[in-house]
Amino acid sequence: MRFLKNERFLNFFMYLFLGIIIAMPIIIIAGLFYKSESVLHANSLSDLLFSTEWKPFQGKFGFYSYIYSSVLVTMLALLISVPICLLAAIYLTQYAKSVYLKVIQPVIDILAGIPSIIFGVWGILVIVPLISKYLAPFFGIETAGYSILAGAIVLSVMIIPFILNILLEIFKSISKELPQASIALGATKWQTIKYVVLRKAFPGIISSIVFGLSRAFGETIAVLMVVGNVAQIPSNIFQPGYPLPALIANNYGEMLSIPNYDSALMFAALILLVIVLFFNLAARMLISRYETKL
Amino acid sequence: MRKKLLALEEHFFKLLMQLSIALIVLVLSLIVFSIFYRGLPALTWEMISQTPKGGYYFGKEGGVLNAIVGSLYLALGATLLALIMGLPVAMLMNIHLRKFKRLVNSIRFLLDLLWGIPSIVYGAFGFSVMIVLGVKTSLLAGIITVALFILPIMIRAIDEVLKNVPVGLLEASMSLGSNKSQTSFMVYIRQCSSAIVTAIMISFGRAIGDAASVLFTTGYTDSIPTSLTQPTATLPLSIFFQLSSPIREVQNRAYASAAILTFIILFISVLARVLSNKYNKNKIS
Prior knowledge:
The complex is a heterodimer. By secondary structure, chain A is mainly alpha-helical. Helices cover about 75% and strands about 0% of the residues of chain A. Chain A folds into two domains: about 1-35; about 40-294, MetI-like (MetI-like fold, Orthogonal Bundle), CATH 1.10.3720.10. Chain A contains twelve helices and two strands. In chain A, strands 1-2 form a two-stranded antiparallel sheet. In chain A, β1 (about 55) and β2 (about 60) form a beta hairpin. Chain A is globular, with a radius of gyration of 23 Å. The two termini of chain A are about 45 Å apart. The relative contact order of chain A is 0.14. In chain B, about 75% of the residues lie in helices and about 0% in strands. The radius of gyration of chain B is 23 Å and the shape is globular. Chain B folds into two domains: about 1-40; about 55-280, MetI-like fold (Orthogonal Bundle), CATH 1.10.3720. Chain B has helices at about 1-40, 45-50, 65-95, 100-115, 120-135, 140-160, 165-175, 180-190, 195-210, 235-245, 250-280. Classes of the chains: A mainly alpha, B mainly alpha. At the A-B interface, α1, α4, α5, α6 and α7 of A face α1, α3, α4, α5 and α6 of B.
């Protein structure tokens, strides 16, 4: 390994790669902003964000129904997966023997590794028929099954490993002394969990939810496959929607002939990026402040 | 009375907790089961060993070998590129910049942020860069895009182990007269070999399974690529395209392709576990 003796050569590459990584988010944001400038010139920002009018041929790009779908699907997904993750994390760290966690951990890891296209196929195979045949008729609604709800269910399964892993870390990192003191004072196990452990873990729980949110918001293929892709403001969750990532994925590549269309889609990517970065930043801040306190 | 109510509440929630764990395990088994249940009957040797012939997407003969090979090329290339870029950075953070705690922590923070960026953003950005440069969709463009996408997780997975290596090892190595590069790539690398294997496996799994970032950058073709500048088919996209066909025969093949992809992913995650246990031996802690 003689080349290792010459440090300059290696150092150059080390700092170069580090530089690339540091520059990456700046370049992406700047690039997206530069590309979306022409659509920002032609339309006002409030029109872009709050209008439902989507007529690329007339140069009208209103993202409201797409943003609305994205938010709705994400919120529903969180509503399903957060309670499940919270309950599972409490049980695994507070009640169960440690062997139990060792068995569950591979399950979580495998779930985290499954590609989103597989979740999409599973959604089409299982969730969509489930909704159209059983769930929707139960509420007296007729639907093909490709709906906001289908997207939310698939998404909720996809973000379970992310939220659960963070929650497990957080519950594990809580010091044992406080709960022990609570038990010593005569509180039951359940009271201790409710009033001591959960309170202590609260900021961590919030940040895990925010993480799940930013994961869910950018998910593309799996949601695209089951959500129906109809641009509208859905009146109930059994109707199809059209989230932002699906819009980009479906229309990119064929947009070059229409003026400003590619610019509009880049603006969609920019919205996506800014929202995800914002939530990620907030969650990281919460966690790091929380860690220094412990 | 109050005590009884509390005990009842605890029992109720304990039941809910057990139910939610059962649900998670059940959902995973259901996913794997339903994919294999629909996919395996349609899976033939022809599917794995042949590229699509004329009229394949109308139910005529052929297979998805182009997508399998394309996906492997893409994932291997991207993982290799990410490793070449990621390993030095992880070393740099933990050896050269060891004294600058705040700087290293900010880099970690940045990497975590980057990891949160959705792959579709990478794909869309990569595509617009390609338009500006006048490059067509190709294997190389896909490899670069996916490598940048998996780079943060690669670095963080290695870094997570390196940051816990006792500082005494660095001091011992330096006092024996080796420089920082030698310390990195001859001493520290043994400490993180299991982490590197895990990082490679995670990144490979991500790279082979991601569809949104290759959608615009790698393109799609029916033949196996012979050079880096050719467009390349990938398994996720092949599943996606076949599934959107109205012909039942083709849809079944999509399920078969999904079974192939699931099998690859499961294989990787088992392999990662075995390998990381094996390489854990030469670690001091």
